Amino acid sequence: MANQTTLTAQNDTRSALGMAAPALIGLFLFVALPFTLAAILSFTNLRLGSPLPTRFIGLEQYTRIFSEPSFRRALLNNAIFAIVVVPLQTAIALGLALLLNRPLRGMAIFRTLFFMPVVFPMALVSVIWILIYAPGANGMMNSFLDFITFGLWEPRDFLRDPYLALPAIMLLSMWQGVGFQMVILLAGLQSIPSDLYQAAAIDGSNKWNQFRHVTLPQLRNTLIFVMLVTSILSFRLYDQIEIMTDGGPLDATTTVMYEAVSAAYQQQKMAKGAAMTVVFFLVVLMITLIQRTLIKEERAMD
Questions:
Q1: Keywords on this record (predicted)?
Q2: Strand, helix or coil at 44?
């Protein structure tokens, strides 16, 4: 009997490994291997086209990038972007999900309309928003702000203003990405048992108390997941910057990914770009570990 149990366990292990093999191979080829190569490169002085031989220089690349004002500004911009966009976009997505989680006619059309910007290529979205942010009184955004302020708004060049460029990128990113969060939160709302709301209504709870004590606790893990993904995307911010501002003006919109790509492909400093990507990976890893810790705490409380 014991031998049969051991044989069954071995067969289950082989089956599990066989089913997990494609995912494990993909993780190795597209995550572990590139990160390992980038980490190795970051300890060298590799530069394309340089006549100097490649040699090991230790942590010198990291010392260099953290001593550069542009890279420190890129980290700050990513942090500001995440601090503003993640909670604000999540709140808007939750509000939309609550509005669309109703059995009304035509609701599927509204869900599609809100989700539609997500499927548009970021290059197309960026070009459209360049037109929206066009400078001068005839620009769409300037005209709208002039209308709602009854002529008090002075036309601005949003993408070339050091104080408005990053907020302009934030607005674009929230408009484009809120539909993705909305769909995930909508699925989370629809998975909440209706019995909980019925019990709360019997106890005399109003809609606000039901939202606080039923909806939010049941959506905790979904909200953590959504905020994690949005945080990672915040540090991956690149396409909008490349197309709309080139990191300017005065590094007001530069990001870690933009600096890494510029170092590797424009300056041909492959080791420098690799060091920046390692820093990016470690930041994302830290965010992921925080998310896992929060989920573990939630399970322990349950």
A1: Cell membrane, Membrane, Transmembrane, Transmembrane helix, Transport
A2: strand
